[in-house]
Amino acid sequence: MSGISEIKGRLAPLDQANVDTDQIIPKQFLTGITRKGYGKHLFHDWRYLDTNESVLNPEFSLNKEEYQGANILLTRQNFGCGSSREHAPWSLGDYGFEAIIASSYADIFYSNCINNQILPVKLSEVDIDTMFQLLYDDAQIAVHIDLPNQSVLIGTSKFAFEIEAQHKHNLLKGLDAIGQTLELSDKIEIFEKKRASWL
Amino acid sequence: MGTTLYQKVLEQHVVDEVGDDLVLYIDRHLIHEVTSPQAFAGLDEKNRKVRRPDLTFGTMDHSISTQSLALDACGPQNELQLRTLAANCATHEINLWPVGHKNQGIVHVIGPQLGLILPGTTVVCGDSHTATHGAFGALAFGIGTSQVEHVLATQTLKQGRAKSMLVEVKGKLGLGVTAKDIILAIIGKIGHAGATGHVIEYAGSAISALSMEQRMTICNMSIEAGAKAGMIAPDQTTFDYIQGKEYAPKGAAWDEAVAHWQTLKSDKDATFDTVVTLNAEEIEPQVTWGTNPGQVVGINQPVPTPSDFEDAVTQTSAQKALQYMGIQPGANLNELEVNHVFIGSCTNSRIEDLRAAAQVAKLGEVKSGVTAIVVPGSVSVKEQAEQEGLDKVFKTAGFEWRLPGCSMCLGMNDDVLEAGDRCASTSNRNFEGRQGRGARTHLVSPEMAAAAALHGTFIDVRKLGAN
Fold it and tell me: What is the rounded distance in angstroms from the CA atom of residue A71 to the CA atom of residue A96?
């Protein structure tokens, strides 16, 4: 996997809190055995008026013309709560989202994003409010996320964000996490020898 | 300074430190059909092996029918997923309990009942309700599929340190009030994301008094408050539950294990980042009214009005939830007509849950127009219930008696509701569309679900006199 450093593009709004992974990708699409092809089912219940996905819901923000081609999702607190399904970041990525901006994330979803090279930007609720306002004023407003410098430039407004050093490192380098841990085999073996026999 | 139970178990599993992350050894890895196929495919692509097939245990639960043992009963996609699990387990020599096997059942029901889950161990599974196993004083949490692959290949996982939260429930529960009501009341108090970034330790006299199955119900829903995991310090109740189970330590190993388990508790001077206290006497049977488990009230409380909440985002969430649920602000829960009842899921499908629901079911008949299903958590729970005649109690009252699985908790099989259906459910999530597009889910205890089945509306089970 190659790393990510800068993401340039446009925002799409999902102006609500507590968006759970059942909403991001409902259960009927979890029967696949590959990591691909989930983008068309993203936000299925909200995005389509029918179960066959042939009639778009014109009211749903992602369906609006001005947000077509957006590659960064702007949303609110506790995004990705609920089920651990990694199909959630797979569907967001497959749809075309490279980053998400929200005030907080559920823990498992956050890890799943890091492991799929989707950048979860965390900003304060006040900053998120400002961003929504900027986006509603200009749907085409340009956004530039700079991961090395931990900043988001939206129009002429700049926001700094925090990210754990290890997560940043992994996103920048796009490392094979399993390959890295396999290099610790000696240490794992030593640990295994110390484990109680009844384990 | 003292350390918490969580910190102790964590430190006992550190293989290495990489930056801010700990490389943790994983003692038990549970797998199922939905979140593992891509992990095995990833291994195969890179020619990697499963490091410890002997510590990995698989079952079929999410995608299976509750009316037929045939793998293709819910369509070719589900069948492919189930057959893929079977093939992956065969290739990598992993223990699998497939449909039809005596050990099969919901992954979080069978782990404890087989004695696989032990105090002080680390337990992971590609399923957010892995928190269930914290009831044993294990550090147990749900992971994504990339992490499943990581554990399969290395038997370790990289993790940061979580914060510690103490939830103390003092006093004694009233009659007709259950572990489910405790955990719903806790989530109602701290909120749907109130424990994000934390591992919760549940303590206090009302928690110590609970059986292991009740403790599992509590820990199971830790994730619904956003917690990484939920734990309860092991005690004699824990040891008694484990002793003699198929995979539990035996003989001298048992004594050695118990000696270690007795050290697993938070030190008296341990500090918690957050402390929450509840009084058990104040908890009444809970019913969720909204679309996340934190949107919950006591059965005798009115449904809130959005303006009751302080901030604009929560008000909007409440408004949207009420609209989806088809409920007027300030409504009484006992006016809501229920047309479906689901008793089951990794939260409430164990033998004690079924006994409690059966006690209520005995008092009458399922109301005309209501479809009520009972889905035992495992083959073993089903057999036990049948030996005790619970199946007959349910069937006589008009409940359907089904085969074990996750069933209508998430509806990956054909146990799916229609738009507008209103369901009293003993499961763990009342999200929009969780049980079917447009369907409305209200989370309750097994007793409250059975009572709703008989009355066709929510009713305070304490008024029925079953207890």
Answer: 6
